[in-house]
Description:
Radius of gyration: 45 Å
Helix content: 55-70%
Amino acid sequence: MARKQRQIPVAMAPESRAAAWLRNFRMSGFALSLLLLVVCALVVLAPNLKTFVEQQQQIAQLEKSLTDAQTSVDELNGEIARWSDPAYIESQARDRLYYVYPGDITFLVIGDDPATGSPDGLPVSGSIQTGTVDWVHALLDTVYRAGLTDATPDQLDGGQVGSPTQGG
């Protein structure tokens, strides 16, 4: 006796719409030529589009610099307007140059700023001191030394030059 084969039903996942569309997609000659035309247009227009975008960025940068320059001009015009005011000029002369009107009594405190002093950090002397160097002799010595030496400029800068009679 022949056995009957039993068929077992298998449940398959339903096909998605995109997969069904791709399975049924047919490329016609017209669609292929249209696609080729679009690709050629992109190849031709891409460099011009890149140039356009770069120029738009440059325009934006130039507009920003123009705005900054206009802001600076406005600030300078405000400064000019302030200097046109006699009261502002008077206050600046009093603050910066210590100008006073005749009859005014002013006090200038010296040493109030802790940064005052000599550049080398030593305290400033209250007495006048005379120099011990004869400047005329020092000037002539420098001229002779520069004219009669065989030393290079680097050696001259380092102070490695001897007396003026050593030169040639």
